[in-house]
Amino acid sequence: MQKKSSMQKFLARIAPQAIIVFTLTAFMIIGAVVFQKIDPVLAEQSFYEVIFFEFITISTIGYGNQYPQTTKSRLFSIFFSIIGIPLLVVTLGNFGKYLTKFYWKAKGCLSSQKTDSELVNDKDMPGFVIALLYFLTFAIGFLFIPHSGEAYSIDDCYFSFISFATVGFGDKVPEIDTFERFSKVTTYLLWGTILNIMLISYMNSWFNTIFARQPYRGRDVEVLIGGQCITVSEITSLVAQQFHASPHQVRSILHDIDYIMDEMQTQESDENSEVLVQ
Amino acid sequence: MEFFGIAKFFINEKVGGKDRVSLDKASYHNNNGSISMRRDDMEIYEDLLFGIEVAEEEEIRVLGRKLRTREALFGEEVTRAGLGRAEYYEDSHMIHSCDKKEPEFVCPYAHLHGKNLRKKPAKIFIENEEVEIELISELMVSGHEDIDDESDDETKDEDEEEEETGIRKFAKLVLPHVALVLLTCTYTVIGALIFYSVEQPHEQMMKEQQIIFVAQKLIKGIFQLKLIYTRQNEFVDDLIRLAAGNETKRYEWETLAERHMHNMSDQLFVAFEKYFLTSNEVKKNAATETWTFSSSIFFAVTVVTTIGYGNPVPVTNIGRIWCILFSLLGIPLTLVTIVMIADLGKFLSEHLVWLYGNYLKLKYLILSRHRKERREHVCEHCHSHGMGHDMNIEEKRITAFLVLAILIVYTAFGGVLMSKLEPWSFFTSFYWSFITMTTVGFGDLMPRRDGYMYIILLYIILGLAITTMCIDLVGVQYIRKIHYFGRKIQDARSALAVVGGKVVLVSELYANLMQKRARNMSREAFIVENLYVSKHIIPFIPTDIRCIRYIDQTADAATISTSSSAMDMQSCRFCHSRYSLNRAFK
């Protein structure tokens, strides 16, 4: 019984992620079909090359070796990126978060040191771990990832970093002539982008400590609820949704609770004084 | 400044001639400069108020893990006892001796209000006993939204000279932002200068080498360009020769054309690949520089914003290494700046887009005309403070739709601008602005790099701020909702309450409430109190709550509650005083 419920919980946690990943995959496949229909240049390319082009577009790397050329396909690429970019950002961001959580969990398991607070506070991975992961990734890229630059030189690093950072100049592009290479390169780039998101979030918090950017409005204050960090405005709108009410109404109820408290206190003091009188 | 919080501290007390050090927790409240502190003699996490049964033990355990303060208050054994409220009471006496394993107090807000963590011993009167306390951690939620974290002495200043602090406050708010923008600009310019100093000599060298190479190899040729033009002349000469010879055989012409075409294209490819000559340079018969100062700036901006058109690109190894290092620090820095600009934009637009507010008002007016005239009640007290019926306290948040509209309008504006500056059609320009502002940057279309470049850069950076805002609103917030599919907020204890402008957990709020009530009372009294609360608190629940579902309530149950909505009008919309309701009961 206990096991089943924990299993269910696990499934409930996994399901939204699975839905997002599934949506993304379906979206990309449908997009590839449409692109091949409306763009004669892309239609000549193989299916996985079009998928790769879509990935390069919505990850905002944008090498520029493949690009839409007709008005129709340009219009479609605008539509495609309006939906695709946030979808991919969220997916990769989630993976990054889970990776970080996994790291803290693993650390908690391996050493006696408790890491609950790091888990709860969504603390970023320490910088040296990210750096280590980067080096490992570069090493793998050095050995296995073919690209148009000079192999086994600074080009490997340069290509990888420029791609991960989603700058994507396009002077060095990965070679995806076979399906195997395509899957290799895509996995590599996906992983690299997740890594880059973690790096940026790490550096972001570092910058924020330097500039001490304080949330200047109450609604932007982040709070911890059920292990997740969300802003006050988000939680209010969420609660409001649950209640089928406007955020304003929810706030007024909270004010009411405040009122109850005051009322009860005054009553209490009244009662006390009554007791004293008696 | 008014603030409220929960603090944990060590107390040095003299008990029976012996020093006793104990860990205690207290809520404190600072009002008008005087700090009042209350020891949390007990904390009860009951959801009577919200009509939710005692949660399962597992739930509590999970919560215990999340908020370790609770774990410290009552361990698992106590919660397993289920309904033993008395035991709750017994065990939730907060004074623990030090030998008891005290988990580190984790303040869930600490990472945000890290600035407010103070570590200094202080002497404070707690229930008329002087004790020395050392705050080990403090949870502070500022009283008002706009006063975020100003030290106490500043509030004194505020009383003295309001105007000066107004300026100072403004400066304090603005200065870091300006500094950040300046820093990013300087960083980009310095980076661009380094790119320029590394890449430009290399390019120069390559072109010079080209001259020497050509001079050595060819007798006539001085320049690759010259070579191309000699080829062209040869071609023309041959053509004239053929034409003069009255040659009409198609075959002859074709072979000639083919030979010269091949020659030409070979030369062109060599010129392009090795010596970085562009078609423009060939057309004008003059070499132009790829790496000028302004193109370096353009390049640096495309790097840090991750647009990455791919023209120009660094070709030397030093340039590439510097590119990696530059982007490593530059990208997050720019991101912070752009997010800041976007935040600023959000903030400004919330105040400046009064049009949207008017639109809401209009919508409300049109809608209310169809319905029965419904006016919320405003009590006399509030009325005397100048709050009338027509005051709009509707949430004026910008919707995702509005931001999307702004994005499209801005992109269209870019389309118009670029179709003026570049020989592009409107749609091509529109497409270019979109691809640029989403930082995809294919590089198939590139803006010119002359005097207008800086205007274009400004356009791009502003556009990035808007896109960031848009992606944040449209994408992340909406897609994040998938997380909450089928997920209910299972216990109200972890919900949030705003009490007098302070944000607290409902559980903590309730604990405080209980603590206030049951302080200095016996156990029996507490149970009675608790019963009293459960029975008598309900009538005090505002009328509004009836039209709102309980968290665990099903939809059909909610329909009943709407019947009481007639009572809504009875409560004042500002202070929510229910005097009229009481009057109704009388």
Automatic annotation (TrEMBL), chain A:
Sorted UniProt keywords: Ion channel, Ion transport, Membrane, Transmembrane, Transmembrane helix, Transport
Q: Which Pfam families match?
A: Ion_trans_2
Domain of life from the UniProt record: Eukaryota
Transmembrane stretches, start-end:
12-35, 47-63, 75-95, 125-145, 189-207
Q: Kindly indicate whether the keyword ATP-binding belongs to this entry.
A: no
One GO cellular component term of this record is: plasma membrane
What does the record say about its membrane topology?
A: Multi-pass membrane protein
Domain (Potassium channel) spans 25-101, 134-207
GO MF terms held by the record: outward rectifier potassium channel activity; potassium ion leak channel activity
Q: Localized where?
A: Membrane
Instruction: List, in alphabetical order, the GO biological process terms annotated in this UniProt record.
Output: stabilization of membrane potential
**Family statement drawn from the similarity comment of this UniProt entry:** Belongs to the two pore domain potassium channel (TC 1.A.1.8) family.
What name has this protein been given in UniProt?
A: Potassium channel domain-containing protein
Q: Which organism is it from?
A: Caenorhabditis nigoni
Automatic annotation (TrEMBL), chain B:
Q: Please indicate if the UniProt record lists Glycoprotein as a keyword.
A: no
Q: What is its main location?
A: membrane
The answer on whether this UniProt entry bears the keyword Transport reads: yes
Compartments where located: Membrane
> Biological process GO terms, please?
stabilization of membrane potential
Q: Which UniProt keywords apply?
A: Ion channel, Ion transport, Membrane, Potassium, Potassium channel, Potassium transport, Transmembrane, Transmembrane helix, Transport
Cellular component, GO annotation:
plasma membrane
GO molecular-function term, one example from the UniProt record? outward rectifier potassium channel activity
Q: Which InterPro entries match?
A: 2pore_dom_K_chnl, 2pore_dom_K_chnl_TASK, K_chnl_dom
The Potassium channel domain is annotated at 279-343, 406-476
Query: Where are the membrane-spanning stretches?
Result: 178-198, 291-309, 321-342, 398-418, 424-445, 452-474, 494-513
Q: How does it sit in the membrane?
A: Multi-pass membrane protein
UniProt family annotation: Belongs to the two pore domain potassium channel (TC 1.A.1.8) family.
Name the UniProt record assigns to this protein: Potassium channel domain-containing protein
Q: Which organism is it from?
A: Caenorhabditis nigoni
Taxonomic lineage:
Eukaryota, Metazoa, Ecdysozoa, Nematoda, Chromadorea
